[in-house]
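re: that complex we talked abt at group meeting.

here r the seqs, copy pasted straight from the sheet so there may be weird spacing, ignore it
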Amino acid sequence: MPVDVNLMLGGEAGQGVQAAGYVMAKALARGGYHIFADQDYESRVRGGHNFFRIRAADREVGAISEALDVLLDFNGESIDLHKKELADKGVVVFDKDKVKNIDGSINHFGVPLEQLAEDAAKNKIMSNVVALGVTMSLLNYDLDLLGNVVSEHFGAGDAGKANVAAATAGYQYARANFKGDFIKHLSPTGRSKRMLLDGNQAIALGAMAAGCKFVAAYPMTPSTSIMEYMAAKADDFDLVVVQPEDEIAAINMIIGAAFAGVRAMTVTSGGGFCLMVEGLGLAGMTETPIVVVDGQRAGPAIGLPTRTEQGDLEFVLHASHGDFPRVVLAPATIQDAFWITVKAFNLAEEYQLPVIILSDQYLASSYATVETFDLSRVEIKRGQLLPESEIAKSGEYRRYEITPSGISPRALPLQQRALVVSDSDEHDQEGHLIEDAETRTAMMLKRLRKLEGLRKEIAEPRIYGPAQAEMTLIGWGSTYGALKEAVDLSNRDGLKVNLVHLNEIWPFPAEAVTQALQGTKIRYAVENNATAQLAHLLRAETGYQVTGKILKFDGHPFSPGDIVRELKKEVA
Amino acid sequence: MVKMSDYAGKPPAWCPGCGNFAILTAVKRALVELDIEPYRVLMVSGIGQAGKLPHYTRCNVLNVLHGRTLPAAAGAKIANPELVVIAVGGDGDGYGEGGNHFLHSLRRNHDITYLVHNNQVYALTKGQASPTSDLGFVTKTTPHGAWMPLNSLAVAIAAGGSFVARGFAGDVDHLVGLIKKGMHHRGFALIDILQPCVSFNHKNTHAWYRERVYKLEDTDYDPSNRLAAFEKSQEWGDRIPIGVIYREDRATFEEQIPALKKGSLVKQKIDPRQVEVLMQEFV
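got the structure back, here u go
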């Protein structure tokens, strides 16, 4: 039997749901399990209902499963909200001194969580860590492994010791008092060297590995933690993170920095990207290499500020007036988030244009266990950045020299004595503004020629499942994990389903997608948006039309079960 | 030694008699007198007649969007503090569309010299009111007269400007001196330059300014007193002061960034292996 355990911690903002969830996930990861975890929170600082879900399995998993084996309730509310998600024999753990009227039909284990925290650690706020101890006992997990992670997380000092005592108290209480029927056991399988990190951390690491030296960004959920992580490391890693007055300043600052010669990035969400659109066009016209992360959340306007959506695809493809080449990449997994970020910086400099990374709230705040990234595979490709010796040899430097590839050799200011002139107006090869039709046409064609080279850089879609299938699912970005599992579940249930999934979207890999869709009859677009944006693009770029759509736009990510249920409805 | 001819650019496409010619001459003279070679200079400008100035010199140029001069200039300065960064714009560009960036650039104190060609009118779009147009100034878009003008010098002092000055395009020698002072200043140096627009502003003309402008250097004015500077910034009408209104010594943005203490970011090596240690924190 494959091992697959689902846990949920639920409570108010401020009760340590996220911290406890992270510690639990890490303790399970250390024991050798593969983890996928996600979180759901409201747009408020205290109160409300938050949850953190953890899936631990003996193989790689890329999505949350729906049947909860343990539901840890911190405030009484989570029981009512989530009891319908409980698996057969799934157990609810709650504070028995606070929750009295428990539904007798559910499998439950009342624990004096706050009392144990008070007794063991003189601090009832540590009841969340007591609950971790309880859960680990139910799972038959190793207390020492939990204790190690708890003390790492809370420090070796008094706080760490108190939290370890709280975890131990919960563990021992459950050992002595749990008489229920619970069959999921998770003994450590050996110490693992895998990382546990979220999508934003993977993007931040990717940016740093790629040599990003300058980040300017305005805080906006869900991308803020990228800038926070990099700001925390900035002084030790020789980079600068600036929080300017607004998103307009942010993108114009990175354009200035990239013009001066460093790899530069901004991170935001759709609402912030709206303000950056003008700057995006400036990067297009001045051929300045920049990387922009759009962590999508539900829109328009403020939308659902802490919830997920894939609603910005058509927006980022068309953002800004006029025609200019750009790249749009949409990481599918946490591994992807790292490697696509590295690639984004390379493409930006090799082709001298803006690259947009289209992530989303779900990917940003989902955790997964991943092997440490093989840094020897990180290539830094700065494109036609002229070495000083070559600039010294050449005469007058022309920033926008017309070339067959459309890419002009790039010099930086203060390199030798080359003068670099970059202009937002249409310009001549020297960079000075022009208005004549002939130069305009030549410059436009030069810029657009970059697309020819770029098409060879874009990854082909991932194809998963049986080659001959009755139904083909088509998706992009962060839905990959759920789609992949939905394919497995569907085939197990007798449907013949496969998957065509894109994580690099523009320039559109039309040829590869056409090939992948040849012979398909029933094609479902599966997207976290209301209008099937990829389906429009697919039709425009390949002529292929989808025959059905499975769309979700309630602010929540797809589970594999969501997709399978919809498919079965279609077949029925 | 740097010569005026080293900075010779293309012939300007400004109206005959425009104040911009004098400003262009003053900028070049200041750079020559400071003996700064063109390749060390980056001029950043937005859109408007003033925004074209960098094209009429020879140096590194980043011509950006209307109102976005300052953040682009700041980004370049942070990336490579060895660049001599001069930002150039007009009153509409800098105080209208770029108002927010103006406030916060003053506050952060980037080491940039910012020249605002202030002709109190939108000239490139042919004569609409600007944020600094005089009260009641009638244009096609303000048939009932312009509203209260923005007092950019007072705003600059209030927002934490560390060098706030006013120049006059009709007095090039004085303006050269001001630009040199601004470039010597460590931090953000605002030089608001009164610049008659011969085509669209028939009120604030050369003659109008000549009757009113006087030099603060000829008085016993002390620019280090912030309250006095605020008071001086209110003087507009029969007498208009030019010169340094306010100056203070304060750490620049770039000086406060630890990563920049090791020199320009542009010269920092890229080494993916440095991430190895960070990855271990996630294991």
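couple things i noticed - Chain A touches chain B through 66 residues (CB under 8 Å). Residues 107 and 276 of chain A are 52 Å apart (CA to CA).
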